[in-house]
Write a structure and sequence with these properties.
Residues 329-381 form the HAMP domain. The protein has 15 helices and 19 strands. It is of the alpha+beta class. The protein has a five-stranded antiparallel beta sheet. A five-stranded antiparallel beta sheet has the order 9-8-12-11-10. A hairpin with a 4-residue loop joins strand 1 and strand 2 (122-124). The protein starts with a helix and ends with a strand.
Length: 588
């Protein structure tokens, strides 16, 4: 089915509108996503920091209240005079200790239990702990002396070795605690009284339900977010995943966060792009981490963007149709007249003329068309002559293109040599380079005697052998008769360069480059072979047939074929691990 110009013009208008619309829509979406993501990252990070500040404030109050017990007169008296063997005294002391602890901690709604532990009795609120002195909490408190120690969330059953509670529905199953040894003192008439050295110092244990942290985060972060509070050893204090609480959570990305104090970053977790915000508590050293999927932030905006783009596309599409039909009529009529005249010219009638009916671009085009017919015969002749000159210029351009390619590589090699060898060989290398520059900077780029080409190659090999510390040697086997004939300048250069830079790039020593030449009938044959790493047939095909590959080799092939004809040129034989051989054929 033939599509007319009118309909193609119409299609082009629609395309010109659709493409910018799609691009703008994509940019609008990406910009919106970026802005929302950045703002959400800032907001979530601030929430995490504020939550930590709130929790640190509460925990500092607990720390201050516990420190006030050091100077409590009643507790000093009770534990200084208490007889651990007298059960009546113990129960009476328990009532007094519980009252003191209640006065200190009962106003704090976050505290679940407060107790004083000794090896002979547990004072304060009663929990089924068995002997708490056998727990890790008690040991950590003793090791810390009078310093407050924060114990991350633990399983009550495991911590206090109460297996009979394993299957029970305990409201205190997961707790985290603060504990310290209380060494009571008492100020009496400006004199500081201390407890006797033989009196056992009790351990204060203040326990919190893990739900304290859960309510703090779940009420403040977005619904699609997840959170986790970890101690420095990756033990989970609180989490949006209940099964992870009191477990060790090891992930590589969390290890990175543990190295820092606070921050926010974008990551990909389980194939999903997320925003991760984290902050470390100054009181406990625990790290709060919140991560939220980026997709959830913009899900509500996608329908709005899609609807606005669709409406805009429909409106602009209708406008495009109206404009296309109107403009097409103005354009296609003069084009049809020109097409009819061109058809006549195509059949050989160069006397065809088109009437000029306007002064616009189509009128100018018609005038140009009429002038073209007047000069067509002359242009055919000039075109033939121009083609001949273009071929000569193309050969010259290809020859000149070789110059910067190898010169850059050579200068780069000399630079590395000067740096690595402390300029010890620089003098002789500069002499060689001077000879090379003199050879390549001649005004004429025609063929040169083989002896000059070989002399240039010797200078090049010297520089390269210094650069690569004698990792290769060069062997010549040239028929003396070949020195009677000229060769294209830099005929061998791209092949020996590839052998040194690519063939021997994985070789420390033992590289061999062989340059041979012989005459067979009316044909000269040259060969450049190396024992380097070789290359695949696909690479060989790319070098020979793709313009983007190996500019030097392609230029050499083109120069040979433009100078001597398409039957002469270059063949490459190579396979991985078996070296490379380049065969060059030229006429006598």
């Amino acid at each position: 089915m033939k599509i007319t110009f009118r309909y193609r013009l119409l299609a082009s208008y629609i395309l010109l509108i659709a493409v910018p619309l799609l691009v703008l829509g994509a940019l609008f979406y990406r910009t919106s996503l970026k802005i929302i993501t950045e703002q959400a990252q800032k907001n979530v990070y601030e929430i995490v920091k504020k939550n930590n500040e709130v929790m640190d404030t509460k925990l500092r109050i607990v720390d201050q209240n516990s420190m006030s017990l050091f100077l409590d007169k009643d507790l000093f008296r009770i534990f200084s005079q208490l007889d651990p063997a007298n059960q009546v005294e113990l129960f009476a002391a328990d009532r007094q200790v519980t009252a003191v602890l209640g006065k200190t901690f009962s106003q704090n709604q976050d505290i679940y239990a407060y107790q004083l532990w000794t090896s002979y009795f547990t004072f304060g609120q009663t929990l089924p702990q068995g002997d708490p002195v056998q727990s890790d909490i008690y040991d950590l408190a003793r090791q810390a002396g009078g310093k407050l120690v924060w114990i991350p969330t633990y399983d009550f059953v495991s911590m206090f070795n109460q297996p009979y509670l394993q299957d029970g529905n305990l409201e205190f199953r997961y707790l985290f605690s603060a504990t310290r040894v209380l060494d009571f003192t008492y100020l009496s008439n400006t004199k500081l009284e201390k407890m006797d050295a033989g009196v056992e110092r009790p351990v204060l244990a203040i326990s919190f339900k893990s739900e304290v942290l859960k309510s703090l985060y779940e009420d403040s972060i977005p619904g699609s977010s997840r959170y986790m509070v970890l101690d420095p050893h990756d033990k989970v204090v609180a989490s949006s995943e209940p099964g992870a609480i009191a477990q060790t959570y090891k992930e590589a990305w969390l290890d990175e966060l543990q190295q820092e104090k606070s921050g926010a970053r974008r990551m990909t977790l389980d194939g999903e792009a997320v925003i991760v915000c984290f902050d470390r508590s100054e009181v406990t050293g625990w790290m709060s981490v919140v991560w939220i999927p980026e997709a959830g932030l913009v899900s509500s905006f996608v329908p709005v963007i899609r609807a606005s783009i669709t409406v805009m596309a429909v409106v602009m599409g209708i406008v495009a149709l109206i404009l296309a039909f109107f403009i097409a009529g103005k354009i296609t009529k003069p084009i049809k007249r020109l097409l009819s005249a061109m058809r006549s010219v195509g059949e050989g009638d160069f006397q065809t003329r088109v009437d000029v009916v306007s002064n616009d671009e189509f009128g100018i085009l018609t005038q140009r068309f009429n002038r073209m017919n007047d000069r067509i015969h002359l242009l055919v002749t000039e075109n033939y002559e121009t083609k001949l000159k273009e071929k000569e210029a193309e050969i010259q351009a290809l020859n000149m293109q070789m110059h910067p390619h190898f010169l850059y590589n050579t200068l780069n090699v000399m630079n590395w040599t000067a740096i690595e060898n402390d300029q010890q060989e620089l003098s002789k290398m500069l002499v060689c380079l001077s000879n090379m520059l003199h050879y390549t900077s001649r005004k004429t780029w025609g063929a040169v005697p083989l002896s000059e080409e070989m002399n240039w190659m010797n200078n090049y090999f010297y520089i390269m052998s210094i650069r690569f510390e004698d990792k290769f040697t060069v062997e010549y086997d040239m028929d003396p008769r070949l020195f009677e004939y000229d060769v294209p300048r830099l005929l061998f250069q791209p092949f020996v360069e590839n052998a040194i830079l690519h063939g021997f790039d994985q070789t420390e020593s033992g590289g061999i480059i062989g340059i041979r030449g012989w005459i067979n009938g009316r044909t000269r044959h040259y060969e450049v072979a190396d024992n380097g790493r070789g290359m695949s047939q696909a690479t060989v095909n790319a070098i020979l047939h793709q313009k983007a590959s190996s500019v030097g080799i392609k230029n050499t092939i083109d120069r040979i074929q433009m100078t001597y004809g398409g039957e002469y040129g270059i063949s490459i034989f190579s396979s991985p691990g078996k070296g490379t051989k380049v065969a060059i054929t030229l006429p006598l």
